[in-house]
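Dear support,

Our group has been running a series of protein-ligand predictions, and this particular one with zinc ion is the one our PI (initials K.S.) wants archived with full inputs and outputs. We had some confusion internally about which version of the output was final, so please treat the block below as the authoritative record. The input we submitted was:
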Amino acid sequence: MALLIKNGKVWAENELRDLSILINEEGIITGLLDAQIDMSELDCEVMDAAGSWIFPGGIDIHAHIQDGAETFCSGTRAAARGGITTVLDMPPFKTTTNRKQCLTRREWAERECVTDFGLTGGIVIDREDLFQMNEVAEFGVGQFKVFMLSDPPVDLLWEAVKTAAHTGMRLTVHMEEPALLGKVNWDDPLGFPKANPPVAENVATAKMLEMARAAGAPIHVCHVSSARTAELIDIYKAWGTDVSAETTPHYLLLNEEEFFVQGDRVVATPALRTKTDNELLWQALRDGVIDVVISDHFLGALPDPEKPRPAPQDAEPGIAGLELSLPLLFSKGVKSGEISMKRFVEVTSTAPAKLLGMDARKGRIATGADADLVILDPLKTWRVKDFGSDSRVSTLPYEGWELQGYVDATLVRGRRIWNGKEIIADCGWGEYIPAKRSH
Ligand SMILES: [Zn+2]
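Confirmed final output from the archive:
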């Protein structure tokens, strides 16, 4: 049955407007109608969104969904709670390097995901991982990943850059130079950031951007943590290099002071930096130097209440933030005046849709687009706490924070999958969204 969402303020054409959204049985937006028009004659289900802001669903292009202790089903349920409607799965090493592997991963995700999804190629750690990248591109994969912490030699990095140039797939890179990392002294609260210094990220970024410039390749800088990395990206953008960049809520909101309070809960690679980096990354986000905010969701292990927390050196680095990245960015970004609502929608939805070639269907509220929607109460304040079965909050450094703006509903292709209290769609509702490349 068709659906009419009325009485909400709808983000359309770069402003909040009083509109009703009409959605057909296929989950496609068929009309944005003046709120004053009488629609009582219309034969459709009606959803009242009075008091809510409605904006396009979040697209997280860097989330480890089926990896570690996380699964396609539980991971996308956590995403749905936080207003994310499409995820780009970041695979383990060598998981999606040819057509057959991509098909296996896609079919697995189709059985389990509650949100829509796309695939990332890779992760490339050997030369042979690049041999069938043409097939991966043909499969509709818009990006493939190189992980510099696996210490790939320079000639492999150059092959990867050239592969990006000739397939049109964006090369997404974890930028850290392994030779510049030290050994962590776990007895020092700041041992982790000291052993994982910003220069490792800066040097890796300079090297990769110079290669991308030379080859004319599209490249993407993963999880920017350091202000100097943002400066380098800005320089290469000005030179016309096709570089895009992402950061995460934890690099915007947390810094190394947290190691004294939270200990291993904030161990992630790259490491948290300084308060100055936080401020300059907000600036880079405002200025368009950083294009996208992602979670880099990674859940190494589920906490076991029966057992003590593992020692920091035994825990896998990573922060599992899917369910909170949009609420954090809304509350601490939009409500705190760091970024505009326009920028919020761009960095969470419109820009990632464009980068991944999904913008014909995703990333905006407009006639003909998929009805992927977040219905948010902008005034409701709430305290971050564990939500239960699919919640990742107990592993997160934000427990107890007070946020303004609560996701009352998440819709994927017109179907409500989260109602503010529970997930109400079965795992398997999610569809594969192939990327459309320019060449
Ligand atoms: Zn990652």
